[in-house]
Design a protein that fits this description.
Blueprint: E1 2-3, H1 7-19, E2 26-27, H2 30-36, E3 45-48, H3 56-64, E4 74-78, H4 83-92, E5 96-99, H5 104-135, H6 146-169, H7 177-183, H8 188-199, H9 203-221, H10 226-232, H11 238-249, H12 253-258
Parallel strand pairs: 1-2, 1-3, 3-4, 4-5
Helix pairs in contact: 2-3, 5-6, 6-8, 7-8, 10-11
């Protein structure tokens, strides 16, 4: 679903998406979007921020408050590039923020990425529900509120999903666990528990795995030096990287690159 009050932008982006086989539903403002969602269930919503009657931030907050549609990812479109606008979008529940003028290649890449993440999200959601059926609600603060308990799985998975996105943005300089938790709307203890439930590892064990997998890809697909590969995935030295890589992959980076095993 594409939501924008500018008819030119509406037609341009609709044409972009249609060229790649997407079926696009349109709405001219936040109110029209919410009405359309009573009948339609899009896989993703592209939402302009500044619109008459109801702006994108307000509409997104309403979507996230509705258990029937809260799991639909909302990607904001805006000419505002300041940090405060982006923070407002993420606080309202948006998963991404694309600045205008929109570039076709960037739009397609971001939409495709979030659709893939939604499929991952759905699989994780099934795991959380299976866990709750066996062991009970994850959140001890629900106090038996059935409506709150029903919403728990989506909240837990959504914040882990967002935390993973943040960690992947820069493998070299990730935020602290505390800062990461604040950015996804929880605290460090709860975020750690979420990662343990969904991945059976801590957030930074998950990050370490992503670093090793990214390094493995660089070793396979490039001729970068070990030092460069190590630095690109966040290791301070090639020696530390080689130790971590061999511990995880049971083969040294050099032999991995050469296709041999220890």
């Amino acid at each position: 679903m594409l939501v924008d009050d500018d008819q030119y932008n509406l037609e341009l982006i609709k044409a972009y998406m249609a060229d790649y086989g997407f079926r696009v539903i349109t709405a001219s403002d936040g109110e029209e979007c919410l009405v359309a969602l009573r009948e339609e269930r899009p896989d993703l919503i592209l939402m302009d921020v500044r619109m008459p009657r109801m702006d994108g931030i307000t509409a997104c907050a309403s979507i996230k408050a509705d258990s029937r549609v809260r799991d639909i990812p909302v990607v904001f479109l805006s000419g505002d590039q300041d940090a405060a606008s982006k923070v407002s979008g993420f606080k309202a529940g948006g998963v991404d923020y694309i600045t205008k003028p929109v570039e076709e290649a960037e739009l397609l890449a971001r939409v495709t990425t979030h659709l893939k993440q939604t499929r991952i999200y759905s699989n994780l959601l099934k795991r959380v529900r299976a866990y709750e059926e066996r062991f009970g609600p994850l959140d001890p603060d629900s106090n038996g509120d059935k409506e709150a308990a029903a919403a728990l799985p989506g909240r837990h998975v959504q914040r882990v999903y967002r935390a993973c996105e943040i960690l992947l943005e820069d493998l070299r300089s990730p935020p602290s666990l505390r800062d990461l938790a604040v950015r996804v709307g929880t605290n460090a203890k709860k975020l750690s528990k979420d990662f343990q439930i969904l991945y059976s590892m801590t957030a930074f064990e998950w990050l370490r795995e992503q670093r090793i997998q990214k390094a493995a890809k660089l070793l396979r697909d490039s001729d970068l030096s070990l030092e460069t590969v190590a630095q690109s995935v966040g290791y301070s030295s090639s020696a530390n990287f080689c130790t971590a890589f061999k511990r995880r992959m049971n083969v040294s980076p050099i032999r991995y690159r050469g296709g041999r095993s220890d």
